[in-house]
């Protein structure tokens, strides 16, 4: 169907409005990061005086770079493990019948619901006893445990929608089980898996409470916790410029990650055999 | 729980009372084993990490235990719960929490659906639109909250300048509105993402068929698309509501709970970490958990009849 | 896309390997001399790191002081330390405590008492008020490192002679407002610790205190009503900054630098800032003592600062005591004053002429410190602070009699940690 000019304008306007509302507060952060510290308290949106000083400042010591590496590594590993384990469990929940299914669902919901503030101190005690305090596993293990409920729920909802008979149909058409799985089922499962991956990754990336409680040095401190250690020019001045610069720097991997995965979701949809 | 669809492949095992053991077929047994095996790693990780902490939190809630007066620790049963439930601070925080939850989730559902439609259907620039819409969710929450707080601070922020420099963060109602704004901006992408993935699974052909039958866009949306999206909507709504009820980061940075803007999580945090009153803090946490459990139960019951069997 | 089984195997193997490596790597310290872990607020100026290095060198190879940074906010610092002390963490030795935490940490059994020779050395030459903050139930639990106190900063082009009392200052401001000149009085009015400092300074200057000396009940009374009356008067006068209810120290500094204010009650950090940011205004930027409440009597400003305590679970307490005394000795406090702008706690440093360039107001700070008051000393200080800050902020909501009554009745429960805090 040919697209009319009116349709184009309509969608174009909608695009612009959505992008504007989503990005204006982000642009405010970018603007803060370029403001000279002396003019940072001007109530203007754009800086009167542009400077790279804030960025130079956060990379002066290796603390922030270390925090960045910790964040990326811990989030990636946690996401990988959580998605793998959640896929297995979600597959079982969506396709198989076995007693205890309700219990599993209930338990994961229970874990997702329990307020993390009361879990932090006992977790801290356990990790100290196991000598895991202030290491990467110290954060990876809780992130996996708390990311699993979201993963299991999301993936089982998606897996339920997949027409599993297609696998049988492909086998009858002569495909090996492996081919049937990779050519037919996997592309249909892809959207759900990548959606879950994005959600779990961002959960790990954003977390502040566990990061500040279960780490104490740059060995494993992630970016949200590292920001709490930024200082301003005096003990009473908030390090606004540094925080803004740090925020911009850590949002770039997210943009890359999202750009990469959102294309995978589309690819999964268009290459699948969703007919009838 | 109601996620118990009919398995698509194997034959169901006939289960009769009293003669259960003899009637289960080999196939069903194999299926069971496979099911448990696949679930085992996830279950083991979740239990290993949370069993002791949750148990310890429950135990603490039954004790009078203030870290600053360690010699006075003793078991007092449900007295902490009595103290919390009879305190006006708890009820006010609960009220604030419910308002924030209800309003922000409603806005996010509508906005999320609109954005999902946009991300799915827009004619051009899909990659850009999708990325732009998802970016707010990826910004570290405390940083985003900090930027909002800065924007609303009198004489230093651009939003404050636009609205008359009246220090809105110190007036309860205005501050709560700003908190809701920050929440909605930050987590609508979550809803939008899940709803878009749900949208993607609605077969195009059904839409085309309905169009051929003469249905308007709105009718197609309500009669064809929405019902098929119910599972995705349920997951999105459920998790979003659970998270909204436990809101903490945004309020903590924007107002620190001052001027009566604290949620129940902030109340729990203050009593647990600031006052070091482990008994009361744990009791508040358990009560938050009970509230959230009630909400989840209501949701699943409400959606329950519609959730399984969708899409077939 | 690989099959599940292969992915699971690969992921599990990687994880286990990673965990094993990391667990083995963590926790092995080098043999040889003792490492004393010093935890303090993050210091950008380099003064603390310099002190740690100097004292390590002076130890003659017996110990090495490692400076570990805590989060920049006081609450974050307290949380980190409390969590680990409650878990009896042996890896902390010297702790930098805010002046309001000593009673709490001592009562919880987390810090050691200073006795004998160490106590004598700690008290020698130290100012009275900082020493008081380190004392609980008659015992010394920490050694003062640095202090901090507010002065009255004013513009001499608008105000030829500085006011001596609060009433005088408010009247001057009202007069300036009538003349259409900059007239605001900058003070911290947000709902946080800063407003508690304001209230405490006023009640102490009025001759009273928040708590009775034994810290088991409230004192308050008429001095509290006097203090609240002043706060209410300021809040409703033209001298009040429109953002008073949300202002903290830095906002006051900025308002003063923007030229809209005539008076400011703030810490000395505003001096170098004004010098750098607004050289024109700096020419007329002068200071005086914090205004008093009673005519003829000096004011009693409430001090801040950091004291150094030794953890109960430290593995090397003797060395830690010695290291702490070194970290806060005369030379290191001088460096902290010049590099970091932190007022010292040793009296004779204030006579030191070499501080003149950066610290021209040091004699006034000494006077303030000699007359200073401290915040209520009780293990339940956090509760007390919250009760007060919620009652007096926003300052426009104060009604002296009612507010005094409200604070007194809430203090009763707060002191024994009964019930919830908001």
Question: Would you kindly provide a written description of the structure presented here, covering whatever features stand out?
Answer:
- The complex is a heterotrimer of chains A (276), B (312) and C (422).
- Chain A has 276 residues and is mostly helical.
- In chain A, 73% of the residues lie in helices and 0% in strands.
- Chain A has eleven helices and no strands.
- Chain A starts with a helix and ends in a 5-residue tail after the last helix.
- Mean pLDDT of chain A is 83; it is low at 268-276.
- Chain B is mostly helical.
- Chain B is 71% helix and 1% strand.
- Chain B has 13 helices and two strands.
- Chain B has helices at 20-23, 26-61, 79-85, 88-121, 126-138, 141-152, 158-162, 172-200, 204-212, 217-245, 249-254, 264-274, 278-304, and strands at 63-64, 74-75.
- The longest helix of chain B has 36 residues, at 26-61.
- Chain C is α/β, with parallel strands linked by helices and 422 residues long.
- Chain C is 45% helix and 13% strand.
- Chain C is built from 17 helices and eleven strands.
- A five-stranded mixed β-sheet of chain C has the order 2-1-3-11-6. Chain C has a four-stranded mixed β-sheet with strand order 8-9-7-10, sandwiched between helices. A two-stranded antiparallel ribbon of chain C has the order 4-5.
- In chain C, β4 and β5 form a beta hairpin.
- The longest helix of chain C is centred in the N-terminal third of the chain and has 22 residues, at 4-25.
- The radius of gyration of chain C is 24 Å and the shape is globular.
